[in-house]
Structures are given as C-alpha cells and as structure tokens.
Amino acid sequence: MGVIRAVIKGCGHYLPERVVENDEFTETLDTSDEWIRARTGIERRHFAADDQKTSDLAYEAAIVALKNAGMTGNNLDTIILATATPDQTFPSTATRLQHAIGMTGGFAFDIQAVCAGFIYALANATALIESGHAKTVMVIGAETFSRIVDFTDRGTCVLFGDGAGALVLQAEEGTGSGEDRGVLSTDLNSDGKYNDLLYVDGGVSSTQSTGKLRMNGQEVFKHAVSKLASSGKKALEVAGLQASDVDWIVPHQANLRIISRTAKKMGVSMDNVVVTVQDHGNTSAASIPLALSVAEQRGQIKKGDLLLLEAIGGGLAWGAAAVRW
Ligand code: ACO
Fold first, then answer.
1. Which of 13, 252, 255, 280 is catalytic?
2. Of all protein residues, whose CA lies closest to atom 26 belonging to ligand 1?
C-alpha cells in the first residue's frame, strides 16, 4: 500500500566569511592548535560578522536550498527552524526568514533542542508531511554560537562556530519499504535530569540576560557515544534496516573522537562517515544540514544513498533519523 514520504528536494548551506584558525585563540588563551586538534579534531571555524544575525545566515542557506529544489519561497507551506541562538526572544527567527524569502502564506516556527535541534525539526516536518498537514517544508538549522560562548573559557570557546544549513522536503508517495526515498524513520529522546551538564547561564525569566554557555565536557562526552549509537540503532530498526545497509553516517559535528567512537560502536567504517568538524567546529543545530550540503557538494552522498543522521546536545536531548537521499 502507498504511504506518504517526506522526500529531500534540495539542500544548501552558508558559512560566514570570517574563518578563525585555532592559532587565533593562542593570542588570548593558554591553549594550542595541537591541543584543540588532538582533543576535538577541530582546525578552524567560521564566525558571523558583527552585523550578521542568525536569520541572515539562515536566509543565505535557504535561498541555496530553494534554488537546488527549483523552488521559490511561495512553494513552501512550512518552515521549521532549529536554533538555540535566535535573533530575538520573539518573534521566531523562522518568521523573519519566512518574510525574507518572500513566503506570504503557510506557517513558520522555531524549535529548540540545541545540538539535536535539526533531528527534532526533521522529525516534526516528517510528521506534518505524513499526516497531510503540510506538503512542502523547509527544515533549517542556523546558529551564531560565537555570541554565547565565554571567550575566557578555553574548555568551551574553541569548540563552537557559526553557520546554517537547509533542506527542502516534499510529500511524495512511497511503497512503505526501506527502499523508498525520503525520511524513513526518526527517533527522539531527552532527559532533563542532565540539564546542568550543558546550559547557558542566563535567560529571559531567570536573569533577563542572554548568558554564556557552560559545559561539563567530560560528562557530555560519556553520554554522547552510547546515546548516539543506541538512537542510531533504534532509527534503523524502526525503518527495517541495519548498520550494514548504511551508505553514510552524517553525525552532529561536535568532536571527532565522539564521531569515530560512535561509528565504531555501530560497526560502521569511518570511510562511511561524513566529517566536516575540522572546518566548521560545532555549529549546534546547523551542523547536520551543513554536513549534508558539503557532502553532497563533495560528491560523497548521492541520490538513493541510505543516510543515518544522529545528534546530541543540551537537555540532554538526542536522536537519529534514517533517510534515503
Ligand atoms: N586548550 C588547552 N587545554 C585545555 C583546553 C584548551 N582549549 N580546554 C581544556 N583544557 C585543559 C583543562 O583545563 C584540563 O587541564 P587540567 O588537567 O590542568 O585541569 C585538561 O585540558 C583536560 O581537560 P578535560 O576537560 O579533561 O579534557 P578532555 O579530554 O575531556 O577534552 C573536551 C575536553 C574537548 C571539551 C571534551 O571533554 C569533549 O569534547 N567533550 C564533549 C563536549 C562536546 O562535544 N560537547 C558538545 C556536544 S553537545 C553540543 O554540541 C552542544
């Protein structure tokens, strides 16, 4: 029997012009390029210009994704934008993007699940499409983490970067098998008892300020590998697939050691893992769509490939998705 699938029609990304190499941090902090590379795999990251907001990054990625999909803003009926660094407390950054791309109908909203935000947005977009509430949805991750890191804390400020990535999904009939193109399954999880492992020490109703990012890196690391691997396995199981079917793991790009240990735990070779963390750092909700877009440009991922996306972040919130490109 036919089923409705959320099929990828176009993909795009944007990185701000300013590239910050690891060495730049040594001017103000007791750190080194060697330490950052060895512990994280990060070599450089992009930082937004002073006058660039998250919605500006989102706009640049969105117009590339629309162009690649052969669409304009008015072909979309929904935008779901994942960010932990919105332009303003409200309105949503998604509605700013909606206006910027000339989309005059439909609806747009933000999702906040920090680094897992893109998986959460993708799962919600898929549910809207499969239930008939939407036909053509832009799912976008956009972040300006350079605005919330503490540049005096060497344990966190070297890890993050700015950027945006976007996908356009559209309803298409599939057969219901794992051979269909589109989002085949999603798996979402969170556990609020870990709130204090990774958080921002400010907020509207607590301090009336934005605050800065605080992280217990070692503890986050411990949770990351096991939670990512189990969520990835669950997403494959729900789709009726297994690790040996996966052409590419496209993980959240936080730390090369987390990425490689998770792949090993899942029994997938690093030859089948998309890695962009060296050039982007951790761009939170933007990291997976950025990696997808870069991997497509590199010629790594091709139409029909089975991708496993997985991410974890503050909350803790984590999840995975099996997607046939
Ligand atoms: N340069 C030099 N030394 C540093 C730096 C730095 N940039 N940062 C920390 N150190 C020092 C520490 O101060 C410590 O020194 P000490 O022994 O004198 O106290 C030493 O290095 C070891 O510190 P650890 O925290 O034990 O280092 P670790 O090997 O755990 O690496 C890191 C730290 C990279 C943060 C690691 O824990 C990690 O990657 N954790 C996961 C974090 C992550 O990926 N978060 C994002 C996921 S969720 C999200 O994306 C929002």
1. 252
2. 218
